[in-house]
């Protein structure tokens, strides 16, 4: 495993884990931050929007870039072009979205395990930085990963894996098979990061007990409460009053303005504000107001109304 200050990692989430949000999570103690999934083809064609996704904050150490694709040679080209911008390259073998699966990438790689192994093999032969794989427990009921498959992955030299033990059809919700994850931890010598449904201290304890793993990755719960990393590290819930949430939301929004410019920041911040507003009085009204904001000052005024 690469060296990290904390065993609680931020999951890659397209549309959410951009540079500003990763800064917020890192400040709360996320041990590893990962880029959103990035297309190897887009890197190959030097797509401008994609290249911006590779930017990171100075405090993101270690930082992992997650790539998705299906062709081992293009994968290697992309990995080599981004290797010096990160501390680890992660191969996406879990994305359930049709647009990705149709191109034989993401969770499709669990139906075509030889293709996945070929990508790992190619990267491990030519990439100096650690290489990891983030995968589900299978594509569907007919392709659940055997322990032999995990051993093959380990033998291919992969440095660690992250397991999200759901099937492709479950997308990001529903039962998480921690027992499957526990078998993987028990089978492999390399580290296994556990991901899926870890949203509270109680849940973390339960997952630790079942899986006996050392590393955990948090996705959707971090969007609701980016301070969850601090709570996990301190093993204690934090006091979160309106002042705290307002300051957090403002800092987050201003980071977005610096990164995206005012126009895009206002639009991209709306979904985060809806999370920050959860549980506050008048949340419904404030969510409506934030959706109508067109100026930075107006956004800050709406944030101030959280009470
Ligand atoms: C909106 C959204 C976007 C996601 N994007 C990615 C992605 O780019 N790469 C990836 O490996 N997983 C992605 N995931 C999956 C998460 O990394 C994680 O595996 C999943 O949400 C389960 O963890 P959780 O229950 O803690 O959220 C995404 C999930 C969500 C909800």
Key traits:
single chain; 307 residues; alpha/beta; TIM Barrel; 2 domains; nine-stranded parallel β-sheet; 15 helices; 14% strand; globular; binds flavin mononucleotide
Concise account of the structure shown:
By secondary structure, this protein is an alpha/beta fold. It contains 15 helices and 9 strands.
Characterise the protein shown here.
It is a single chain. This protein folds into 2 domains: 8-234, TIM Barrel (Alpha-Beta Barrel), CATH 3.20.20.70; 242-304. It contains 15 helices and 9 strands. It has helices at residues 19-27, 40-44, 48-52, 72-82, 98-101, 113-126, 147-155, 178-187, 201-211, 220-224, 228-234, 242-260, 262-277, 283-292, 296-304; strands at 8-10, 33-34, 38-39, 63-68, 88-93, 131-138, 160-167, 191-195, 215-218. Strands 1, 2, 3, 4, 5, 6, 7, 8 and 9 form a 9-stranded parallel sheet that branches. The model has no long low-confidence stretch (mean pLDDT 97). The structure holds flavin mononucleotide. Residues 11-16, 36-37, 66, 92, 94-95, 134, 164, 172, 195-198, 218-221 line the site of flavin mononucleotide (FMN).
Class from secondary-structure proportions = alpha/beta
Terminal Cα separation, in Å? 43 Å
User: Would you count the extended β strands for me?
Assistant: 9
**How is the main sheet built?**
9 strands, parallel
The helix/strand series, from N terminus to C terminus, equals: EHEEHHEHEHHEHEHEHEHHHHHH
State the fourth-level CATH superfamily of the largest domain. Answer: Aldolase class I
Shape: globular
Assign a percent range to the helix content. Answer: 40-55%
Mean pLDDT comes to 97
Number of helices: 15
Strand content: 5-15%
Radius of gyration: 19 Å
Number of individual domains: 2
CATH architecture of the largest domain: Alpha-Beta Barrel
Low-confidence stretches: none
Bound molecules: flavin mononucleotide
């Amino acid at each position: 495993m690469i060296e990290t200050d904390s065993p609680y990692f931020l999951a890659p989430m397209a549309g959410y884990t951009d540079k500003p949000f990763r800064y917020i999570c890192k400040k709360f103690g996320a041990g590893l931050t990962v880029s959103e999934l990035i297309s190897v083809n887009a890197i190959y064609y030097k797509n401008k929007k994609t290249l911006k996704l590779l930017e990171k904050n100075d405090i993101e150490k270690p930082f992992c870039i997650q790539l998705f694709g299906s062709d081992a040679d293009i994968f290697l080209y992309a990995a080599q072009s981004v290797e010096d911008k990160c501390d680890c390259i992660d191969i996406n073998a879990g994305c359930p979205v049709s647009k990705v699966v149709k191109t034989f990438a993401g969770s499709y790689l669990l139906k075509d395990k030889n293709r996945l192994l070929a990508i790992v093999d190619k990267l491990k032969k030519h990439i100096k930085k650690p290489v990891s794989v983030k995968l589900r427990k299978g594509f569907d009921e007919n392709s659940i990963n055997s322990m032999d498959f995990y051993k093959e992955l380990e033998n291919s030299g992969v440095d660690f894996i992250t397991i999200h033990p759901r099937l492709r059809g479950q997308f990001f919700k529903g039962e998480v098979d921690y027992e499957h994850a526990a078998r993987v931890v028990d089978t492999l010598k390399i580290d296994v990061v556990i991901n899926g449904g870890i949203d509270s201290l109680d849940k973390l304890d339960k997952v630790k007990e079942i899986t006996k793993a050392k590393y955990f990755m948090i996705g959707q719960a971090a969007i609701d409460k980016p301070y969850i990393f601090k709570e996990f590290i301190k093993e204690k819930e934090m006091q979160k009053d309106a002042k705290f949430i307002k300051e957090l939301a403002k800092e987050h929004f201003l980071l977005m303005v610096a990164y995206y410019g005012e126009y895009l920041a206002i639009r991209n911040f709306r979904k985060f504000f809806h999370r920050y507003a959860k549980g506050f009085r008048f949340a419904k009204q404030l969510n409506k107001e934030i959706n109508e904001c067109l100026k930075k000052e107006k956004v800050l005024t709406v944030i101030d109304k959280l009470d």
